[in-house]
Amino acid sequence: MQIVKVLIEYANRTLNRPFSYVYKGNIKIQKGVRVLVNFNHRDIVGYVIDVEETNKTLEELESESDYRLSEIVSVIDQSPLLDKELLTLLDEVSSYYLAPKISVLQAMLPPSLSPRRSSLKAPKIAYDQYYELLEDNEEDLTNKQIELLRFIKQEKRVLKRDIKSKSVADKLFELGRITITKEEKRRLKIPDYKYENPPELTEDQKAVIKEFNESSDQVFLLEGVTGSGKTEVYLSLSEQVLNSGKSVLMLVPEISLTPMMVEYFLHRFKDNVAILHSDLTPAEKYDEYRKIAKGECRVVVGVRSAIFAPLKNIGLIILDEEHTESYKQDTLPFYHAREIAIMRGRYNKAKVLLASATPSLESRARGQKGVYHMLYLKKRINNQKLPSTRIVNMLDYNNIDRESYIFSHALRDSLHQVLARNEQAILLINRRGFSTHVNCRSCGHVFKCPTCGIALTYHKSDNMLKCHHCDYVEPYPEVCPECGEKHLLKIGFGTERIQEEVERLFPSARTLRLDSDSAKNKSKIPETIEAFRKKEADILIGTQMIAKGHDFPDVTLVGIVLADIGLNMPSFRSNERAFQLITQAIGRSGRKDKPGIAIIQTYMPSHYAITYAARQDYELFYRKEMEMRRMQFYPPYSYLASVTIRGKNEDKVIEQTYRIVDFLNEEFLDEAQILGPSTPYIPVEMGLNVRSILLKFRNPKKAHKILEKMIDLFGTNSQFELFIDIDPFNF
Ligand code: ADP
Ligand code: ZN
């Protein structure tokens, strides 16, 4: 009999201990397979982390321990899901993030292999069938049969479904002249791209590659201005690594926003490329995953979760736009792909290349200290100038176009000129919908989401009020529910309103809008981007989605309709986020041969995040922002962890949070700043009351020990859920 220790997913997610089951069957269960077990009268999927043989009987075992041992219902996998490296990584990630192992597993495995009950309806493997020659003998065959036999002989193998004369083939098969072989089929349709010869690298690109190759450092940070040709550096390095027999992991923030990156890799490396992102069907993901695991694809291009791809013998890991927040998972286990990349790099003795025009402050500070090796691309390709920029102070009434009030004279005039020259423009407004909120003109009532408590946004296209945090919607009201007033004010503006405004001021201009409303259907995003690239529109209006790495050769104007959005958010990252967004957006202008301009409208014309972004000067911003972080004891000068407590009863949640705060105060003494308990921006989630605590500290090792102790003490109380977020982004 075997005693098996399994991890299971259970409502109380902090449950991080294995449960024991017995198995009397004759399969030798291995570590790393999934089994079906009964827990609290439900069959759930468990993940085996330990197996032990025993000669004892069930009765003996049960009398030794003081609980009942039940039997495994069934064994799901024949062989372990994770290889040695990934098993090590599982431990390392779970330990670094203080996260339950089961949650790490769920992040690591594709949905169809994940230890969840729902994954048992996993997609089956799809096959292609081929005819192959078995006996080269034309005796007694009809002419038609001989013709087909010769064809198959000549082609070596022929896809079964490509053969028109089914009956002839069937007969040959029956006679034993040909046979059928099966091969796994890849469900993801990959276009058959032509190989593209790489362009001659520029001197700057060559210098970066040389420095990278000659250094024995492990982690590199490439700071390269927008349009400096970083992609070509990724491709050259990848080619090198592949030629040396190793494999490459290329991470991008979001595939639908960067379809070009996938295309570049497919052009260069063809069938060797596997693609992993969230828009794939479970079946497609499953195929890609297995192709990687079997070593059939040695280049993986994917989003955050692809960092766990079962790629063997990794030689290089690249994170494009390393500052992007989508690399941080905002649910358990709250991991950051950069951290995992470095762990895997260490295990594989592979180099890690982080790259961005606007690196995260944490990474850039590590570069400063020599923890990461800094690389620079300071000029655009062909010495193309960075766009010239202009900040427009919207507080000054003279700057505002009286016909619009949303646009300044400068922006309106520039749009006019761009249209006259038949070039293209991008307008960035980092807020979707029509207005930001709706007020009653008479009593001031603000329409809010009943669950989240935040103001609802008006969406004109369907005349609804929508919550931008949860999926709450309601029809736009006729009157104020408080006082009956008919006149309601729509305050502020979003993408919808800007599009309407552009169409009003420039009736002949063709516009496209890109935000998460217009792109409800994910394939809409690459379609819109492609349409704009093909000049099917003159002006593209959108949220931060349009600021990412796109390369539109004909865009010569970027207008930032309101640069201040985000600057007033209560987060120490708000300056950094605003700077990154504005810089990246400006970087879309004038990338090819025509010079570009950018116009930045703002009510805070002297805010350093805006002025330095306008100057495209990352280094100045970095120094200034570092000073602010030092004064406020925020990262990179401190480490952060947040603790979130959720429960049904608000009073009890508050009490429990205070208990935890007391505990933390006692343990840390004065070695950490403990902020809270605070009520988060969204105070209620899924019907549960939320409170949180933020810790700022210098010594992560010590903090780790204290937090572990906290989990032991407070993590098992079934009335509360306790989450720890190491290096949190949102709190
Ligand atoms: P970044 O990612 O740094 O913003 P890209 O990688 O998008 O910049 O490159 C900008 C443009 O320069 C692209 O159109 C790319 O095809 C082109 N490019 C890159 N390297 C070269 C090169 N060596 N020679 C010619 N064109 C290049
Ligand atoms: Zn809501």
Please give the radius of gyration in angstroms.
29 Å
Instruction: Supply the helix-strand structural class.
Output: alpha/beta
- Summarize the main sheet: 7 strands, parallel
- Beta-strand content: 15-25%
**How many beta-strand elements?**
31
Question: What molecules are bound to this protein?
Answer: adenosine-5'-diphosphate, zinc ion
User: Number of DSSP helices?
Assistant: 19
Share of residues in helices: 25-40%
Strand sequence of the main sheet, in spatial order?
Answer: 11-12-10-13-14-9-15
Report the uncertain regions: none
The end-to-end span amounts to: 49 Å
Shape descriptor: globular
> Average pLDDT across residues?
90
Description of the structure:
By secondary structure, the protein is of the alpha/beta class. Strands 11-12-10-13-14-9-15 form a 7-stranded parallel β-sheet, with helices on both faces. A 6-stranded parallel β-sheet has the order 16-26-25-17-24-23, sandwiched between helices. The protein has a 5-stranded antiparallel β-sheet with strand order 2-1-4-3-5, with no helix packed on it. The relative contact order is 0.08.
Keywords:
731 residues; alpha/beta; seven-stranded parallel beta sheet; 19 helices; 30% helix; globular; binds adenosine-5'-diphosphate; binds zinc ion
Can you describe this structure in just a few lines?
With 731 residues, the chain is α/β, with parallel strands linked by helices.
